[in-house]
Amino acid sequence: MNLGLGGLFWVVLQRDLMVAMRRWSDICNPVIFFVLVVALFPLALNPRAEFLRALAPGVLWIAALLAALLSLNQLFRADIEDGTMEQLLTLPYPLGLVILAKTLAHWLVTGLPVVVVAPMLAITYHLPADAIGILLLSLLIGTPTLSLLGSIGAALTAGLRQSGVLLALMVGPLMLPVLMLGARATDIALSGDDPTGPLYLLGALLALALSLAPPAAAMAIRISAD
Amino acid sequence: MSEFFAMGGYAKYVWSSFGVTAIVLILNLLAARRQLRQTRERLQLRLVRQSGRKVNT
Amino acid sequence: MWTWFFQLASPPHFYRMAASLVPWLLWPALLLILVGAWGGLVLAPADYQQGEGYRIIYVHVPSSYLSMMVYVTMAVAAGIGLIWRIKLAHAVAASCAPVGATFTAAALITGMLWGKPMWGTYWQWEPRLTSELILLFLYFGYMSLRSAFNDLNQSDRASAVLALAGVVNVPIIHFSVLWWAGLHQGPSISKIDAPSIAFAMLWPLLVMILGFTLFFLGILAMRVRGEVLEREFHSRWAQDVLRGVSRVEAA
Fold first, then answer.
1. How many domains does the structure of chain C reveal?
2. What percentage of chain C exceeds 90 in pLDDT?
3. A124 class by beta-carbon count within 10 Å (0-12 exposed, 13-18 middle, 19+ buried)
4. Residue C238 lies in a domain
C-alpha cells in the first residue's frame, strides 16, 4: 500500500476515531467530569447570579483544563499495550505526523464535546450571550493547544504503570498560559471590552504547539517504546 | 550594635530572609555530599553482589 | 582547544577534575557570599523609601537569578545529552534540578518575607512571585518524571524532552504572567526593581550573585561526580574507583 503523507494522516485519524467509537465511556467520561466540576462551584460557594457570572470564565476554563488533563492518560496507552505503536514506529513516515493525527482524534473525541457543552453550562452561570461566544471561541482555539501539550506528557509517561498524577504535575504548569489567556479573554468580553488581543495570543500558542509538540511527542514515544 | 540588629524595625523580615537563604545554602551542600557518598556506597554494594554472583556460577 | 573539550567530556577525566575543582569553587563562593552579605547588611546605606527592609534584595535577587539560570542550564545540558547522546550532559541536567528547586523555594520565601513589610501581606499575585511559583512546579514535574523510571538511560532522555518543553514555555509563561498581572493592576513592583540603584547598594548585590553562581557550580561539580559514577558503573574505571584501586580516585 502506498500512501502520501496526507493519506497516512487520514488513515490514522479514521482508525483512532473508529476505535474510540467502540468505547463510548472514553468519549463520555471527560465531558461528564467537566460538567461535574462546573456544577461543584455553585454548590460549594454561592449560587447568586452576579457572583457566578464573575466566576464563570475562570471556572469553565479550569474545568476544561482538568478534563483535558484527566483524559490524556489514554492517548497512547492502548497503542503501546497492544503493540500498535511498535508498528507505527517502523513506518517509513515521519512519526510526528502520526502523533498529530492521534492527538487530533483524541481532541475530537474528548476536547470537542467539552467545547460543545461549555455554552450550555455558561448559561447556568448567567453569562451574557456575547461573552459565551468568546468563551466558545477561546475554548475552540485553546483546548487543541492543551491536547497538543498533553501529547508530550502522555508520550513521556506512556510506558509507565501509573501516570495519572505525574502526568498532571508535569503538563499542568505548561498549560497555564493557555488557561490565563483563555479565561482572561472571556473575562474581558464579560466586562464589555475587546478580547481580540488574548484571542490572537491564544492562536499564536496554538500555532507554536502545532509545530513543536508533535515532533517532541514523537521523540518521547520513541524513548518510551525502548 | 543593637541598632544594626534591629534593622530599622525590619529585623524580623531581614534576618529571617538571610537565615532561610543560609539554610538553603547549607542544605544544598550537605545534600550534595550525602548524594555522592550514598551513590558510591550503593554502587559498591552492587559491585560486590555482582562479583559474588560471578564467583558462584 | 577541542582536545581539551573532549578530555573534559570524558567521564573519568571529569570525575577526577571535578573533585579538584570543588574547593576552588566553594571557598571563593563562601568568601564572596560573606563579603556580599557584609556589604549588603552593613556598608550599603538604607533605602530612602524602604529603609532597612530593602536589604532582603541581597538574598532574594541572587536566589531568583539562580532559580532561572539553573533551569536554563538544565535544559541546555538535557538538550546536548539528547542530541549528542553524551552521558555527562545528562548527569549535569539531573544534578541541576534539586539545586534549582531549592533556590526557587528560597526566592519564593524571601520574596514573601519582603512582601510583608512592603505590601502589608506575605503574598501578592504579582508577576515575579507568580512566575517563581510556576517555575517551582516545573522543577517538581521534572523531578517526579525522573524518579518514575527504573531505567536511568530512559529517565535521562524522557526528562530531557520535558526540560526542553519547559524551557520553551518559560518565556511564554513569563510574558503571559506579566500580561495577566498588568490587567489586575496589583501593587507596583517598580519599588523593588529600583531602576537607578546607587553603586554602594549595587556592588554587594553583584558580589552576591557571583558568589551564588560559584556556589552552584561547586555543588553541581559534587553532584555530577555521583551521577557520572552511576552512569559509568559498567566501565572499568568506575569499578576501579569503587574498589578503591583507582588512580582516578587518588587525585
1. 1
2. 60
3. middle
4. yes
What is the domain extent for residue C218? 16-250
Residue C26, chain B, CB below 8 Å: the answer is yes
Alpha-carbon separation of residue C109 from B16, B19, B21, C36, C61 (angstroms): 9, 11, 9, 20, 12
C154: which residues sit within 8 A by CB, 6+ positions away? A159, A223, A224, A226
Q: Which of A44-58, A169-183, C43-57 has the least mean pLDDT?
A: C43-57
Is C225 an 8 Å CB contact of chain B?
yes
In a domain, C46, yes or no: yes
Grid cell, residue B17, equals 530572609
Per the structure, the complete domain to which residue B17 belongs is given by 2-56
What's the CA gap between A121 and A40, in Å, rounded?
A: 12
Q: Do C144 and A163 touch (CB under 8 A)?
A: no
Chain C closest-CA separation from residue A71 CA (Å): 18
- What is the amino acid identity at position A205? L
Closest residue in B to C26 (Cα) is B29
Interface probe for C, chosen from A162, A165, A180, A224 (most Cβ of C below 10 Å), is A180
Report the half-sphere exposure of A39 (CA within 13 A, side-chain side).
8
| Distance, CA of B43 to CA of B49 (rounded, Å) | 10
Cβ atoms of residues A75 and A154 within 8 Å = yes
Report pLDDT digits (tens) over A143-152.
999 999 999 9
Residue C189 contacts residue C178 (beta carbons within 8 Å): no
Q: Which of B20, B30, B37 to mutate to test the interface with C (most CBs of C within 10 A)?
A: B20
Q: Tell me the nearest-neighbour CA distance from C24 into chain A, angstroms.
A: 36
Asked if C141 lies within 8 A of A173 by C-beta distance, the reply is: yes
Whether residue C6 lies inside any domain: the answer is: no
Answer whether B39's CB lies under 8 Å from C114's CB: no
Distance of CA C135 to the CA centre of its chain: 12
Best mutation target, B4, B15, B16, B25, to test chain C (most C CBs within 10 A): B25
Q: Given this model, what pLDDT does residue C250 score?
A: 46
Q: Which residues of chain C have a CB within 8 Å of the CB of B27?
A: 102
CA A56, CA A191: separation in Å to the nearest integer?
Answer: 12
Do C75 and C168 contact (CB within 8 A), yes or no? Answer: no
Residue with cell 552576591: C208
Q: How many Å apart are CA A24 and CA A6, to the nearest integer?
A: 27
Give how far A137 is from chain C: nearest CA, Å. 19
Domain extent listing, chain A: 13-225
ipTM of the complex model: 0.91
For the segment A103-109, the average pLDDT, to the nearest whole number, is: 94
Indicate whether C59 belongs to any domain: yes
pTM, two decimal places = 0.92
